[in-house]
Structures are given as C-alpha cells and as structure tokens.
From TrEMBL:
InterPro entries: CbbY-like (IPR044999), HAD-like_sf (IPR036412), HAD-SF_hydro_IA (IPR006439), HAD_sf (IPR023214), PGP-like_dom2 (IPR023198). It comes from Methylibium petroleiphilum (strain ATCC BAA-1232 / LMG 22953 / PM1). One of its GO terms (molecular function) is hydrolase activity. Gene3D superfamilies: HAD superfamily/HAD-like, Putative phosphatase, domain 2. This is Haloacid dehalogenase.
Amino acid sequence: MLAALLWDVDGTMAETERDGHLVAFNEAFEALGLPWRWSVERYTELLRVTGGRERLLHDMTTQADAPAGAAERDRLAAALHAEKNRRYGQLVERGAIALRPGVLRLMNEATASGVQLAIATTTSRVNLEALLGAQLGTNWPTRFAAIVCGEDAPVKKPDPQVYLRCLDALQLDADETLAIEDSPNGLAAARAAGIATLVTRSLNFASHAFEGALAVCDDLDHPAAPSPHLKGARAA
Ligand code: XBP
Ligand code: MG
C-alpha cells in the first residue's frame, strides 16, 4: 500500500530553475565582479550537474579566467553560491515563483487519504525554506513527515543517498513509496533506491524520454500516460 509521496522540489514542485536559480546565479556573477553569464541553453546543459556549488565548480573547468588552484575555486564557488542563494531567496520570497499546477491539490489529497508527504531534494535548506515558506506559509514543515535536502545528503542525485535517507527517516520500504521527479538525475536517484517514480515534465527536460519512469505527465493536473518502459520501473 502507498504510504508516502517523496517530492523533489526544483522543477517538480515549481519551475525554480530558469526564473529563479539561473537569474540569481547571473546576478551573483555580476555582484562579485565576474564577467561570466549563463544563457538558458548553457544552464540547461549545466543542470546535468546537481547542486548549485557543484555546478559552479564544474563550469569553472571551462572558464579561462577561473582561479587555478582548487582551494581558491572552492572559496569562489562558496561565495558565489551564498550570494546566489541570497538573491534566489529574495526572488521567491516576493512570490515570483508559484507552485506548479496540481502540486497543492495532490499534497492535500494525499494527506487527506492518510498518505504521508516527504521531501527528497538536492537543493540547499535555505532555498527550500524560502520557496515553501512563501508558497505554503510559515507552518509548511508540519506538512512533511521527513525533509531531506542538500546538506543532509551531500552525495547528490543521481546518487540514491537523498532517497535512502528519506526512507530511513520515514521508516518505510521503497515499495511503500512513490517519488515525484522532473529530471533524469532525479529519476535515476529514485530508481537506484528502488522507488517507483512519476515524472512531471519541467521546462528543462521537456523532451527527455525518462526511460524507467512509472509514468510521465506534463503536470500533476494532467493524467499521466503509463510509461512504455513500465516493465521494471520499480527496479534499479
Ligand atoms: C536541483 C538542483 C539544485 C538547484 C539549485 O536538483 O540541482 O542544485 O539547481 O539549488 P533536483 P542549490 O531538483 O534534482 O533536486 O543551489 O541550493 O544547490
Ligand atoms: Mg528537480
């Protein structure tokens, strides 16, 4: 029996990447006096690397004017990430990014049916707090039986760590839960933890095949077509 829905946040609950994180990353580059700017196309490629700090470090390997030493790169990535998160927080606190269609309805229906809600995200806690505080109100954590974010599971998706820690916190087996994801890395992470996964397509992965998903939908208010790859959807 289904006991819990395990929610990804970025892309799944809200379209946070293009109008949120990307805008804030580019503002952070400017604020720290760097000439770097990421286009939507470049950012879409960079989303293959989960975690904002990890994404910055990855991009530095392609920037001729990035610091040469690892320690200096780490310091710059940490400063940029902190500035990005501060600006992202300001954006979402102003209500600039809404929840996607069907998200609140599904949360309410699940809770009313006795199905627990949990969060399994690679994003930083501060970004999660800013988004859900703005969209669900200050009591938002009481809606969730477990909240696992980037700081709690530092080995990021596609590694299953965040999902395994979420199952641990819930004291549930994988086959009692369903993950809701929007990205190939998220799907891979959930599947590697043995969790069946519903994909809700986001802007950044609009045409991806999502092989291995239980089902794929355009958003949570539109019925999901069973995946042609349904066979084996629960196994990693
Ligand atoms: C989300 C991420 C995050 C966000 C930025 O992936 O990869 O890095 O892009 O947030 P998912 P932070 O939706 O698969 O969890 O800067 O806080 O990392
Ligand atoms: Mg996501």
